[in-house]
Design brief:
Layout lengths: L1 E9 L2 H31 L7 H6 L1 H7 L9 H24 L16 E4 L6 E3 L9 E4 L3 E6 L7 E10 L2 E9 L12 E6 L3 E5 L4 E3 L3 H4 L1 H12 L11 H35 L2 E5 L3 H4 L6 E2 L7 E2 L3 H14 L1 H15 L2 E5 L24 E3 L6 E3 H21 L1
Parallel strand pairs: 8-11, 11-14
Antiparallel strand pairs: 1-5, 1-7, 2-6, 3-4, 4-5, 6-7, 8-9, 9-10, 12-13, 15-16
Helix pairs in contact: 1-4, 6-7, 7-10
Length: about 400
């Protein structure tokens, strides 16, 4: 199996400058390759430029521009071109499926924050000085950079990436390792129902409160964004010192909220994996759930629109994004795979409207957000607990069907 590791690195001033130049030059390569594809399609009889054609030009580009492109790893530049190729592949896939196309865009220096090295030892070297007490990673054109390695890397390192987040730099590794030993069986199964009032409810009647990290930080974020809005929009090189500090304050606040969400998701997922052999959850389409409502034209008055509940939906969408369901489910599946647990997603329709006692399904069974009262048999319970029970039953049915 493949596992990822992320460590803080501590470059010197010169190394930090070299890392910034590496990002800038790879960004220039990305934008130039995008421009070539656009020009070829528009002006040369709709010619499509592929990755192989652009990769073949790298040797010549490096010879022409040795100061910017020639000093960096050839493999990392190929990875940047593959990144653009994947963006175009996703664009054409969305066109074929009828979704919003989203044509690949040019990247500003501040929006290009990662350089990938496809193979350890080719342009980079993890733990380049193993005889020293301090772990270091070596990047071509940068040198040996100190790493704050807070845990052991298990397995053989496959790929290495360097990433910038605000003023901090990180190295991200992927390592191939044997399947770990599964956790001891507990004999317990659980269904979970994700929500807004509570982050999740399980089929055993327990609840995990919603920390609402974004809402708790909203006052500070609002003040920081208002302070930033007073400065005119300009390129990073033209910003004053006060403008740059205002930008960094907003970035720092968003980064803190993001780390808090990740920490909560990791701890909650780990607790579930340790206590249950089988976990079922709803197969939520989070992107569809957080879409803005469509406009409702007034048929009697052209150009006039009827109320569509956009304000209320905007608040709900903000709460859904603040909860971070997608990140949590991704982490849950990864931890379950490492621990030898089984996680299954089930259809979420009517899970909180179906009575777990008699099976009656009706909208009237859920008179309020929290209360469940079956109009057929009179069963009462918390609506989220009922949803989790129905999710668990559907998950067990699907598991048995898969085994059969």
């Amino acid at each position: 199996m493949i596992r990822a590791y992320k460590f803080l690195i501590r470059p010197t001033v010169r190394q930090g400058q070299a890392l910034g130049e590496m990002l800038r030059d790879h960004c220039c390569l990305y934008n130039a390759a995008l421009q070539e594809r656009r020009d070829a399609y528009r002006h040369v009889s709709q010619t499509t430029v592929k990755y192989g054609m652009q990769s073949a030009q790298l040797k010549e580009i490096r010879a022409i521009d040795p100061e910017c492109q020639g000093r960096w790893s050839f493999s990392s530049q190929q990875a940047t071109l593959r990144r653009l190729d994947k963006a175009f592949a996703a664009f054409f896939r969305r066109v074929r499926s009828g979704d919003a196309p989203g044509y690949p865009r040019f990247r500003g220096v501040n929006w290009f924050d990662t350089v990938d090295f496809p193979k350890d030892g080719d342009g980079c070297r993890w733990n380049s000085t193993p005889h020293e007490a301090v772990t270091r990673v070596r990047f071509q054109g940068v040198g040996h950079v100190k790493v704050n390695q807070h845990r052991t890397v298990v397995g053989r390192v496959k790929t290495v990436s360097v990433k910038r987040e605000g003023r901090k730099w990180f190295v991200v590794l992927t390592a191939e390792q044997d399947q770990p030993e599964p956790l001891p069986a507990t004999g317990s199964v659980a269904g979970i129902d994700l929500g807004i009032a509570n982050f999740l409810a399980d089929s055993n009647g327990e609840f995990v409160p919603n920390p609402r990290h974004g809402r708790r930080a909203s006052a500070k974020l609002e003040a920081a964004q208002q302070a930033l809005s007073r400065f005119p929009r300009c390129k990073a090189k033209d910003r004053t010192a006060n403008h740059q500090r205002a930008v960094e304050k907003v970035v720092a606040l968003h980064g803190r909220v993001r780390r808090q969400r990740l920490d909560h998701a990791h701890k909650t997922a780990l607790d579930l994996v340790r206590h249950h052999d089988f976990i079922a959850h709803e197969d939520l389409k989070i992107r569809n759930m957080s879409k803005a409502p469509s406009a409702k034209p007034d048929p009697g008055q052209p150009g006039i629109f009827l109320p569509n509940g956009a304000a209320a939906k905007a608040g709900l969408n903000k709460s859904i994004n603040d909860a971070g369901w997608g990140v949590f489910l991704t982490i849950l599946h990864a931890k379950a795979e490492s621990a030898g647990r089984e996680v299954i997603a089930v259809d979420p329709r009517n899970t909180s409207r179906t009575c777990p006692e008699c099976g009656h399904t009706a909208k009237e069974n859920r008179p309020t957000q929290e209360k469940f009262h079956c109009v057929s048999c009179g069963h009462t319970a918390h609506a989220d607990t009922v949803g989790a029970l129905n999710v668990l039953r559907a998950g067990l049915v699907r598991r048995d069907a898969n085994r059969a």
